[in-house]
Every structure is written in C-alpha cells, then in structure tokens.
Amino acid sequence: MYIKRDTTGSVTAASLKSGGETAEFIADDAPELLEFMENKPEPHQSLEDTDQQMARVMEDVIYLLIDKGIVQFTELPTVAQEKLLSRSSDRGKVRGINLLDDEDILG
C-alpha cells in the first residue's frame, strides 16, 4: 500500500498504486495504516444517508410552500404530484401501523 502523510506523520491518504502524493510504501498490516483505515469516513454511505434526509427536507419544504399559498400543488409537474401523493399515502400507512398498540387491535 502507498500512503501520504501530513506534517505530523499521520497517514492522510492511501492508494494501491504509487504516484503523486501517495509515494511512500507501507506494509498492509502496519499499525498506522490500519488506524487510518478504521477512522476514515465512508463517503458513499454518508452521502446516501444525507440524500435520504435531504429528500425528506425538500418534501417538507414543498408542503410548507403549498401551505403558505406560495405554490399551488397543481403547479407542480404531474410526476412530482404523483410522487408526493404516493409518499404521503405511504407515510400515512406507516404512521397508522406505528400508532396501534396491543389494546387497539380488535380480535
């Protein structure tokens, strides 16, 4: 493995290939490399989490604009209307399931 270090000597990047800033060779089982690999963020996972959260924020913003009369629901593209209605319906079903407890179930 080839690495890059910062001014304190800590590993800041790693690559399977030598080149550019990752020119120093280090053993795959070197403690500082293992520490770097354990602590490095996983951008794809965090981006996916952020995307889901951002989609919910945008949905809330759209409904806020509609509630304030700034945008009318019918002004949205048909595809957007359909997706919002579908998600709203799905959320209602999930909420309905989550609101039931053992006493609410009729036998």
Counted beta strands: 3
User: Class by helix and strand content?
Assistant: mainly alpha
Largest sheet: 3 strands, antiparallel
Approximate strand percentage: 5-15%
Going across the biggest sheet, name each strand in turn. Answer: 2-1-3
Q: What is the distance, rounded to the nearest whole angstrom, between the alpha carbons of the first and last residues?
A: 63 Å
Number of domains: 2
Would you kindly provide a written description of the structure presented here, covering whatever features stand out?
This protein has 107 residues and is mainly α. It folds into two domains: 38 residues, no CATH class; 62 residues, no CATH class. The protein is 52% helix and 10% strand. The protein contains three helices and three strands; from the N terminus they run βββααα. It has a three-stranded antiparallel sheet, with helices on one face. A hairpin with a 5-residue loop joins strand 1 and strand 2. It starts with a strand and ends in an 8-residue tail after the last helix. 3% of the residues are buried.
